[in-house]
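Side project, low priority. Logging it here so it doesn't get lost.
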Amino acid sequence: MSNDALDDMLEFHWIIDMLQTVDVGIVVLDREFKIKMWNGFMESHSGKLPSEVRDQSLFSLFPDINRDWFAQKAKPVFELKTRAFMLWEQRPYLFKFSNYRPITSSEQFMYQNIILAPLVSATGKVDNISMMIYDMTDIASGKKQLEALQVTQSEAQERGSRGS
Protein backbone atom coordinates (compact mmCIF):
# COMPACT_ATOMS: atom_id res chain seq x y z
CA MET A 1 0.00 0.00 0.00
CA SER A 2 1.39 3.41 -0.95
CA ASN A 3 1.90 6.14 1.61
CA ASP A 4 -0.85 8.24 -0.02
CA ALA A 5 -3.34 5.38 0.21
CA LEU A 6 -2.36 4.75 3.83
CA ASP A 7 -2.72 8.47 4.64
CA ASP A 8 -6.16 8.51 2.98
CA MET A 9 -7.26 5.46 4.95
CA LEU A 10 -6.04 6.95 8.24
CA GLU A 11 -7.81 10.24 7.49
CA PHE A 12 -11.03 8.40 6.63
CA HIS A 13 -10.79 6.52 9.94
CA TRP A 14 -10.49 9.66 12.08
CA ILE A 15 -13.30 11.38 10.15
CA ILE A 16 -15.61 8.44 10.89
CA ASP A 17 -14.47 8.44 14.53
CA MET A 18 -15.26 12.16 14.77
CA LEU A 19 -18.76 11.65 13.30
CA GLN A 20 -19.43 8.92 15.86
CA THR A 21 -18.25 10.89 18.89
CA VAL A 22 -19.39 14.47 18.17
CA ASP A 23 -22.07 15.75 20.59
CA VAL A 24 -24.54 16.26 17.73
CA GLY A 25 -26.94 13.70 16.30
CA ILE A 26 -26.10 12.78 12.73
CA VAL A 27 -28.48 10.72 10.61
CA VAL A 28 -28.26 10.10 6.87
CA LEU A 29 -31.52 9.31 5.08
CA ASP A 30 -32.19 8.20 1.52
CA ARG A 31 -35.14 9.35 -0.62
CA GLU A 32 -37.37 6.68 0.96
CA PHE A 33 -36.36 7.97 4.41
CA LYS A 34 -34.44 4.81 5.21
CA ILE A 35 -31.59 5.33 7.65
CA LYS A 36 -28.12 4.97 6.13
CA MET A 37 -26.05 6.35 9.02
CA TRP A 38 -26.75 6.68 12.75
CA ASN A 39 -24.03 8.13 14.95
CA GLY A 40 -23.14 7.65 18.62
CA PHE A 41 -25.25 10.61 19.82
CA MET A 42 -28.35 9.02 18.26
CA GLU A 43 -27.47 5.60 19.65
CA SER A 44 -26.96 7.03 23.13
CA HIS A 45 -30.21 9.01 23.24
CA SER A 46 -32.48 6.55 21.40
CA GLY A 47 -31.09 3.31 22.79
CA LYS A 48 -31.03 1.97 19.22
CA LEU A 49 -27.81 0.57 17.74
CA PRO A 50 -26.71 1.58 14.23
CA SER A 51 -27.02 -2.06 13.17
CA GLU A 52 -30.67 -2.08 14.35
CA VAL A 53 -31.70 1.04 12.44
CA ARG A 54 -29.66 0.75 9.21
CA ASP A 55 -31.95 0.46 6.16
CA GLN A 56 -35.04 0.84 8.38
CA SER A 57 -37.70 3.48 7.73
CA LEU A 58 -37.40 6.51 10.00
CA PHE A 59 -41.19 6.42 10.42
CA SER A 60 -41.41 2.77 11.40
CA LEU A 61 -38.78 3.32 14.10
CA PHE A 62 -40.27 6.65 15.23
CA PRO A 63 -44.02 6.54 14.52
CA ASP A 64 -44.53 9.89 16.32
CA ILE A 65 -42.85 11.67 13.39
CA ASN A 66 -45.50 12.80 10.91
CA ARG A 67 -44.42 11.41 7.54
CA ASP A 68 -46.25 14.00 5.39
CA TRP A 69 -44.93 16.93 7.40
CA PHE A 70 -41.36 15.60 7.37
CA ALA A 71 -41.49 14.80 3.64
CA GLN A 72 -42.58 18.41 2.96
CA LYS A 73 -39.60 19.69 4.99
CA ALA A 74 -37.21 17.36 3.13
CA LYS A 75 -38.56 17.97 -0.39
CA PRO A 76 -36.60 21.20 -1.12
CA VAL A 77 -33.47 19.60 0.34
CA PHE A 78 -33.66 16.78 -2.21
CA GLU A 79 -34.97 18.82 -5.14
CA LEU A 80 -33.39 22.26 -4.74
CA LYS A 81 -30.23 21.23 -2.86
CA THR A 82 -31.01 23.72 -0.09
CA ARG A 83 -30.98 23.33 3.67
CA ALA A 84 -34.10 23.13 5.81
CA PHE A 85 -34.37 24.01 9.48
CA MET A 86 -36.57 22.87 12.35
CA LEU A 87 -36.23 25.09 15.41
CA TRP A 88 -37.20 24.21 18.95
CA GLU A 89 -39.26 27.41 19.24
CA GLN A 90 -41.57 26.12 16.48
CA ARG A 91 -41.49 22.42 17.41
CA PRO A 92 -39.76 21.46 20.68
CA TYR A 93 -38.40 18.15 19.34
CA LEU A 94 -38.49 15.71 16.45
CA PHE A 95 -37.16 12.77 18.42
CA LYS A 96 -38.80 12.39 21.82
CA PHE A 97 -35.56 11.85 23.72
CA SER A 98 -35.50 12.18 27.48
CA ASN A 99 -33.54 15.06 28.90
CA TYR A 100 -30.29 13.47 30.02
CA ARG A 101 -29.61 16.22 32.57
CA PRO A 102 -32.67 15.92 34.83
CA ILE A 103 -30.81 17.31 37.88
CA THR A 104 -29.68 20.57 36.30
CA SER A 105 -32.69 21.07 34.02
CA SER A 106 -36.40 21.03 34.75
CA GLU A 107 -37.29 19.91 31.22
CA GLN A 108 -38.65 16.41 30.68
CA PHE A 109 -37.58 16.08 27.03
CA MET A 110 -34.63 17.23 24.96
CA TYR A 111 -35.38 20.39 22.98
CA GLN A 112 -33.84 20.15 19.51
CA ASN A 113 -32.77 22.28 16.58
CA ILE A 114 -32.47 20.23 13.40
CA ILE A 115 -30.79 20.97 10.09
CA LEU A 116 -31.52 18.94 6.97
CA ALA A 117 -28.73 19.27 4.39
CA PRO A 118 -28.33 17.78 0.92
CA LEU A 119 -25.56 15.26 0.30
CA VAL A 120 -24.64 15.79 -3.33
CA SER A 121 -23.17 12.73 -5.07
CA ALA A 122 -20.33 12.75 -7.59
CA THR A 123 -23.00 12.82 -10.33
CA GLY A 124 -24.54 16.00 -8.89
CA LYS A 125 -27.70 14.24 -7.68
CA VAL A 126 -29.03 14.31 -4.15
CA ASP A 127 -29.95 10.74 -3.22
CA ASN A 128 -29.30 11.23 0.51
CA ILE A 129 -29.72 13.98 3.05
CA SER A 130 -28.08 14.50 6.41
CA MET A 131 -30.01 15.40 9.50
CA MET A 132 -28.08 17.11 12.30
CA ILE A 133 -29.79 17.18 15.69
CA TYR A 134 -28.60 19.74 18.24
CA ASP A 135 -29.53 19.56 21.92
CA MET A 136 -31.03 22.97 22.76
CA THR A 137 -32.47 22.01 26.17
CA ASP A 138 -30.27 24.35 28.24
CA ILE A 139 -31.07 27.32 26.00
CA ALA A 140 -34.80 26.51 25.91
CA SER A 141 -34.92 26.09 29.67
CA GLY A 142 -33.10 29.38 30.23
CA LYS A 143 -35.41 31.23 27.85
CA LYS A 144 -38.50 29.78 29.53
CA GLN A 145 -37.17 30.78 32.96
CA LEU A 146 -36.40 34.30 31.73
CA GLU A 147 -39.90 34.66 30.25
CA ALA A 148 -41.47 33.44 33.52
CA LEU A 149 -39.38 35.96 35.46
CA GLN A 150 -40.43 38.77 33.11
CA VAL A 151 -44.11 37.87 33.58
CA THR A 152 -43.67 37.82 37.38
CA GLN A 153 -41.87 41.19 37.30
CA SER A 154 -44.53 42.71 35.04
CA GLU A 155 -47.33 41.48 37.33
CA ALA A 156 -45.52 42.90 40.38
CA GLN A 157 -45.11 46.28 38.68
CA GLU A 158 -48.78 46.24 37.71
CA ARG A 159 -49.83 45.50 41.31
CA GLY A 160 -47.47 48.22 42.55
CA SER A 161 -48.89 50.86 40.21
CA ARG A 162 -52.48 50.03 41.23
CA GLY A 163 -51.60 50.26 44.92
CA SER A 164 -50.19 53.81 44.70
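Brief comment: The domain at 24-137 is CATH 3.30.450.20 (Beta-Lactamase).
Revisit when time allows.
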